[in-house]
Amino acid sequence: xxSKLAFLGLGVMGYPxxxxxxxxxxxxxxxxxxxxxxxxxxxxYGGRSAPSPADAARDAQIxxxxxxxxxxxxxxxxxxxxGMNPEAILVDHTTASAEVAREVAGAAKARRIDFLDAPxxxxxxxxxxxxxxxMVGGDAPVFAKVQPVLALYGRAVTLMGxxxxxQLTKMVNQICIAGLVQALSxxxxxxxxxxxxxxxxxxxxxxxxxxxxxxxxxxRTMVEDKFDFGFAVDWMRKDLGICLAAARANGAALPVTxxxxxxxxxxxARGGNRWDTSSLIRLLRDQR
Length: 288
Prior knowledge:
It contains 13 helices and 9 strands. By secondary structure, it is α/β, with parallel strands linked by helices. α5 (98-110) links the parallel β5 (89-92) and β6 (114-117). α1 (14-23) runs parallel beside α6 (123-129) and α8 packs across α11. The termini are far apart.
């Protein structure tokens, strides 16, 4: 059955995610902080746009949001909840802290509205192709209601545990990626300085135990020194900051993550704020 949905936040991820919902035949109302972006989406996909989160969320059965950081989540969720009906469901796809997920869940519960934290992984290409990995925190009955909708842009949609578990799982994801990208940067830089053909090296080792998503999707662009696409360094630093704060709270040691976070700060200092995260190799390539 087609549902009345709202999608709040039409950035590089939210825009195509909302598009998949409309393409599937759902009645979708969108909100974006920049109205022109919402108008562009409506022109492409149909549906309608609203001037505020509350207006977009009014009468929607499921409200989905994908915004910037904890403060954005608080502000947009507060406004959206004001327009939602009891028994509706709010789903947050933003990569944020587990604390803000629990905070919003509490505010939603006070209005008899269900909440799921559901950060995603897979990047802009995954959003466009409908092949995101979605890590969800919340109650199983609520997840069961929402899962068919999330499956429209997620190839793997998994309930990880109670509220906040989705965000904690996304932290694990980012911790692993940080180490992988640094290792891949070091390997490619080593291959080039050793006089090897880096493309041939990647072709060979990608067929063995060193294979990874980062190698398959970023290895050759790293060799070509291309970084004007993909997941921005600014976003990764935001995410790693969340990881490091959570680790301080739970006692987990993240020495490599902390080091890579500082490497990313050096990329930012060079003006690489919007470069892809694979730009870590620039720090090694420019050393003499």
